[in-house]
Task: structure prediction
Amino acid sequence: MDRNPSHANESLREFLGEGQEILSRVTTLLARDRVATIGQDDLDALYRDVHTLKGSAQLFGFRHLALVSHVAEACLEPVRRRVLSLDEEMTDRLLGCVDFMEKVLANPQMDLGDDPELVAELGRLVPAMSSFASERVNGGELMIPREAHPDEDHGVHEKKAAPAATMPTAPPEAPPTARAASAAIPLAEETRGSAASPPPAPPSSPPEAPGGDGRAEGNLEASSIRVNVALLDRLMNLVGELVLVRNQVLQHARASEDHAFLSLTQRLDLVTAELQDQAMRTRMQPVSLLFSKFQRVVRDLGKELGKKIELKLGGAETELDKSLIEAIRDPLTHIVRNSCDHGLENPLDRKRAGKGERGTLSLDAYQEGGQVVIEIVDDGRGIDPNFILKRALEKGLLSSDRAAALTPPQIQELVFLPGFSTATEVTAFSGRGVGMDVVRTNVEKVGGVIELASRPGKGTSIKLRIPLTLAIVPAMVVESGGVAYAIPQIKLQELLLIDPNSNALERLQGKAFYRLRGELLPLVDLSATLGRGDSAEAAGLLNVAVVKGENATYGIIVDRIRDTADIVVKPLSSFLKDLKIYSGATILGNGQVALILDIQGLAEHARAVRIRADSENADAGARTDEGKFNQDMGEYLVFRIAGEESYAVPLSLVYRLEELPASAIQKSGKELVTPYRDGLLPILCLEHALGLLPPTAWPDFDERVPIFVVEKRGRYYGFAVEDIQDIVSLESDVGAPLTDSPGVLGTLLSAEGEARTVIDVIGILERSTRPDDAAAGAEKRRGRTEPAEPAKLRKARVLFVEDTPFFVKQIGRILYDLGLDVVHAPNGEEALKILDERGERTPFDVVLSDIEMPRMNGFALARAVRAHPTHAKLPMIALTTRFRDADLVTGREAGFNVYLEKLKRDELVTTLHKLLGESP
Amino acid sequence: MSEASLQQLTTFWIDSNLYGIDVQGVQEVTKSLPLTPVPLAPTSIAGLLNLRGQIATAIGLRQLFAMPPAADSAKESLVICRQDGCLIALVVDEIGDVIEVSPKDFEEAPQTMPESVRAYSRGVYKLEKNVLTLVDVGCVTEKFNPGKSV
Result:
């Protein structure tokens, strides 16, 4: 039999498409929850669909398909009459038939004999179905046709079921119980390839063809037509062209005085916009197409995993461009599988957790602000932050210091890190080693974002936000070096006009940064980055477009910001695709070609500093209002002094970066000072502190001296360096110093193995010899180095609560030097735990606590301690950088005995002495 | 290359050298059009242009053949080809006539041909007064997109 659809005609394609839709509908009906309670209407529809399929299959010569649909139909007949119930077993078998049929439809050209597995499946299915059903119905009313044409036997072995009667192969309407709903249809072989005729009667009872390529809802009244997707693509392209021409016409019109012409262009504009809108609609498909598939997936998963899962679908009519539906199919599947596999618990665990036995998984879709939001919510066990942290640490994805400082939302984000899930965790159901990072990549590839929220024990909610369409996007047109570029609106956060003389603008040897609401925003000069010279630094202001890439927010300096426009995205020719800084090209209204900037690609190219953009995730109490001290201690300012060695200082201690003319630096006594703000800024040289130069010698300054300014108790101090190199984000710990110089805190190792010495600026400042502090300075020095002190303090136990690794080391060292027994907690919550667990056996003598910490800040901790039955009287010292009067009051009210500033080492020592030991 | 008796070529000049491309591969020839530069692209990518609503990539043959820039660009023109679904515009000094050539006049590229040209040429045709270098557009795109063109 010639099954070769290279003679594929329209009818055959129709059959294949329709067949798949029927199977989809059938699956939806069968895979749904509590299918046994299915209504009569649905049963009738189910039967009709299967019956239709059988007829068409016969017509087009798909013998085996016809056979299987026939046995399915035969089983459904008593079900429809309510003689048999659609229980689990029946449903399973019917779904097994559907699986087989789907395989056949997926490979219409295949000769069944070529696939032994499929053949075997057929051999199992048919007799199994018939005997199963006939066992249920007394008297074996079911009849199964025998193999039709022996000469075409492809090795299919068909056993006759015991009570089955054979049937003639012609019109298979013989079973007395089956309705001969259709006219006698000769078997396929004779009528194969009947070109002109569309599928006759049988397909007409359920809807003939859904509209726009796939409305799965079997709405009998819908007048719709099946359209080839390629045709729609071409249509969309043409509409895109029209949009471009329309844009150009409008531009021309602006310069015209011809009223007739102008009104024509207006009309053209309206019609084109309408056409664009409608054309986009033709490609829109309801997400129900996607969702309904999950019925089956969830059902099967539930069975395999032994879990009871109820799938709730909402917003099925929400529409999305077909290409986008395809794009999110896989990510969505992965999320659903994850939920079933890891999220939802088995009935026993659920009961123990006080939940109902059936887990609920809900898929919802709705439009929100130009995007489609797809929400997947489960009421499972949620994401356990401790488990995530443990796994992340195990996999070496972050350091333990960093881990201790994360807020719960930040911890949940860890699941998106590449390498988070491995083969051991990923079971057969969740996919082959596909992790959430791949999901995120795929979603972001189409311009979407994925958000995760979870409550441990309660459940997890994942949101996908997808743009409505890809082809035509709103964009901002900018100009640089006389050439226009387009920035997709979705990546654009805001526009800035920066005064080049502004205080907030800082330069580090060619790299510019802007302090925007407390954060350092790297600036990228578009012209310079593209190798076309620096941006026109006009006398006026700098135009900056703040954009957000995958994980970097930065500002692009351009010459001019033009206007917004809806642009048609045209792909770059294949030999330009390697240029990661462009994501396509477009034709502007004036006919010019403009390249579309790829924000992430541009960032990587400019090697912009990666500053984590999600400040929204940061704990509310973790940042001061001025944002002076960056919560993220992983950032260091790297600079050079006296030659080649690289030094570093924690960025959080740096108040500002300056570049001052050497001519402005003057000597004042033994010091160097320079006019700064409204006063004088003392300039210190690290060479002195590190013993590289005698105190009377000063290094040679260049014409312009890079300086980083440190603030201490309202006073500013400048450290002159030779060269400020970079701001780096390093997760590593500050290791023990390689040398024993004062002024050195330790060594920092970069990922590449570079070692940088970390300078102890606070210590240096405290030792600095300022004329008016000379006496105090001398005393401080004494206090620091006298070894006799520790002996005076009895062995006291301190609960030291601090989240910032840098300060943990710094202050911890002081405490150790004093001979104290230190127990460390990274935040208030942990501190309380420790107090509860150990506070009785090994009592603490004092609590030393930071204020700004994630999870529970210092104030809350103090209050909790004061309210504690056992530990209420514990002396508490607050150590902080927040030192305003209001803070003092709050601190006292919360229960702190003493409120100290972090950078004042000696005050701390004195206070501890007072509290714990004999005074010096 | 057709096995038929005569082949038609679109010809053009770069300096005083004559080059040709099979007409089958040429969509049209036009005068020079404004180009939008593509920063950071290879130097032989002259830019992008708007060809009646389609974006074509302009390739400077002079740069490709490692020749110095033209002294006089008055007659600069574009030879528009479609290759692998992409629109390519070859920037040439001057357009020549469409000529017919015979396979018997075809020879392999001589040793004297510079390597930078040989990479894109299949050979030469010996004409009455001239030697015409046959340019293979497929080789041109192959250079930028290894492994992708035919």
Remarks:
- Chain A touches chain B through 25 residues (CB under 8 Å).
- Chain A is about 35% helix and 25% strand.
- Chain A has a mean pLDDT of 73.
